[in-house]
Amino acid sequence: MLEVRNCRLSMPAIEVTEERIEEVLEMVGLATNASLLYRKYSLGMRQRLGQAAALLNHPQLLVVDEPTTSQE
Fold first, then answer.
1. How many domains are contained in the chain?
2. Domain limits at 41?
3. What is the pLDDT along the chain (72 residues), one digit of tens a residue?
4. What is the model's pLDDT at position 1?
5. In a domain, 66, yes or no
6. What is the 3 state secondary structure string of the chain?
7. Could you give the CA distance from residue 37 to residue 30 in angstroms, rounded to a whole number?
């Protein structure tokens, strides 16, 4: 979960709770791998982590380009 928590550094204007992090990790299917280091993630897992970071702020609209590229 450390890797997702680091997303806070790039979004200081919002408050990201532990509950929200867990909720978003569950949404993208990374909840069971939250304790892994980023370098241990497969390319598909890294894509999902990027999606999780985009979802942390409760966006009303999320524009994506090929969001499932390289996902398992």
1. 1
2. 2-55
3. 555 555 555 555 667 888 999 999 999 999 999 889 989 999 989 989 999 999 998 889 988 887 667 666
4. 54
5. no
6. CHHHHHHHHHCCCCCCCHHHHHHHHHHHCCHHHCCCCHHHCCHHHHHHHHHHHHHCCCCCCCCCCCCCCCCC
7. 12
Question: Alpha-carbon distance 41 to 62, whole Å?
Answer: 24
Length of the chain: 72
* 13 within a domain of the structure (yes/no): yes
Interatomic CA distance for residues 66 and 20, integer angstroms: 25
Interacting residues of 61 by C-beta distance below 8 A, sequence separation 6+ = none
Buried/exposed code over 54-68 (b: 16+ C-beta within 10 A; e: otherwise):
bbbbeeeeeeeeeee
